[in-house]
Design brief:
Elements: E1 6-8, E2 15-17, E3 19-22, H1 39-51, E4 56-58, H2 67-79, E5 86-91, H3 107-121, E6 126-131, H4 140-152, E7 156-162, H5 166-178, E8 184-190, H6 202-209, E9 212-216, H7 244-260, H8 264-273, E10 278-283, H9 288-295, H10 304-314, H11 327-333
Parallel strand pairs: 3-4, 3-10, 4-5, 5-6, 6-7, 7-8, 8-9, 9-10
Antiparallel strand pairs: 1-2
Helix pairs in contact: 1-2, 1-9, 2-3, 4-5, 5-6, 7-8, 7-10
């Protein structure tokens, strides 16, 4: 399998692979050192991703205290693929605990963070620049206007957000549209079979406002590989790490994997990458072989009946007011006894250039 199918990211003309390469383990600095890899160790991972047709690479200034960006920049230059890859980096985290303006999402820090990232990456622009985490303080208008300035300056091509409330992303996008500023095209969030909460608001918000979601941790930190078992040994085995419901989810996941003749990890990645609103799933790897197995997750389709099995086992029941937005409630109180929908199937067929 090669990642030779590319799709538009959000409401933009940027084509990206359905699986993005996560580089949080590129380098050995900071608290990532426990699982970090040296430049020589990650080179074959990066090359394997490129060889398979991948073009969507994700990093952040925070990863391995900047080493991820430095190593990635060297590998991109070495391979001569700067124009080919869609290079993504993120900012928010503090680079100096003694300086209140050395972290957060304010204009001063955003510009300083980007300039530092560009130096480490050895490039004069990044394709996609993301706010890494909502800081609860900076006005969204300041964030959007600064991102727009960076696009106009030619230092970033596209803008996006990561790990923010749905209302914040909606406000940012609406402000950008109302003032003819650079729109957000990407929203990076945690999403997996055991963490589906973003379906409540983030996913429909992204679909309606043009933000393609890239899902990080599609394997829930390795939990969905099946490597760890309740009561066993290992980093994720402690009973208080996961709930009984989540441990039980491994059973249908294992069943589906067995029926399809693939690994549990491949099923989990496939499920995420093919969910509504998901533009790409971010996968990391400790070796080129492991990355190859992850990329093979798109070699098969999950049959409808098996997808239903996974959906039902992992479903998160709507809470509070969200119960009123379910088809069951709406059919009971809004359109009792009638069949009312948005558009009939086939109304907007997919556009394919192959």
């Amino acid at each position: 399998m090669s990642l030779d199918q590319y799709y538009l990211l959000g409401r933009s003309g940027l084509r990206v692979s359905r699986l993005a390469l996560g580089t949080m383990n590129f380098g050995t600095g900071g608290f990532h050192a426990a699982y970090g890899k040296t430049e020589d160790e990650v080179r074959p991972i990066f090359r394997r991703y490129l060889d398979e047709g991948g073009n969507f690479v994700d990093t952040a200034d925070f990863y391995t205290v900047g080493e991820s960006e430095t190593i990635l920049g060297k590998l991109i230059t070495e391979a001569g693929v700067r124009d080919r890859v869609v290079l993504t980096t993120k900012f928010t985290n503090s680079v100096d605990p003694a300086d209140p303006n050395a972290g957060g999402n304010g204009r001063k820090h955003m510009i300083r963070a980007l300039e530092a990232s560009l130096r480490r990456l050895g490039t004069d622009y990044v394709d996609l620049f993301l706010l890494h985490t909502w800081d609860r303080l900076t006005p969204v208008e300041e964030v959007v206007r600064t991102l727009d300035d960076l696009v106009r300056a030619g230092k970033i091509r596209y803008a996006g957000l990561s790990d923010v409330p749905a209302w914040y992303a909606a406000k940012a996008q609406t402000y950008a549209e109302a003032h003819s500023l650079t729109p957000m095209i990407n929203l990076q969030l945690p999403y997996s079979l055991v963490q589906r909460e973003i379906e409540t608001e983030h996913v429909p918000m992204g679909q309606h406002l043009g933000l393609g979601i890239t899902a990080w941790s599609p394997l829930a930190g390795g939990f969905l590989t099946g490597k760890y078992r309740n009561g066993g040994s290992g980093r994720l085995s402690a009973a208080d790490t996961w709930s009984e419901r989540e441990w039980q989810l491994l059973k249908p996941l294992e069943e589906v994997a067995g029926k399809l003749g693939v690994s549990m990890a491949q099923v989990a990645i496939n499920w995420v990458a093919t969910q509504p609103g998901i533009a790409s799933a971010i996968v990391g790897a400790s070796s080129a072989d492991q990355l190859g197995k992850s990329m093979a997750a798109l070699d098969f389709e999950i049959p409808a009946e098996l997808r239903v099995l996974l959906d039902e086992a992992s479903a998160v029941a709507p809470a509070s007011v969200y119960r009123m937005f379910t088809p069951e409630y709406q059919n009971w109180i809004v359109a009792p006894g009638l069949k009312v929908g948005d558009k009939p199937e086939g109304y907007a067929p997919a556009v394919r250039n192959w």
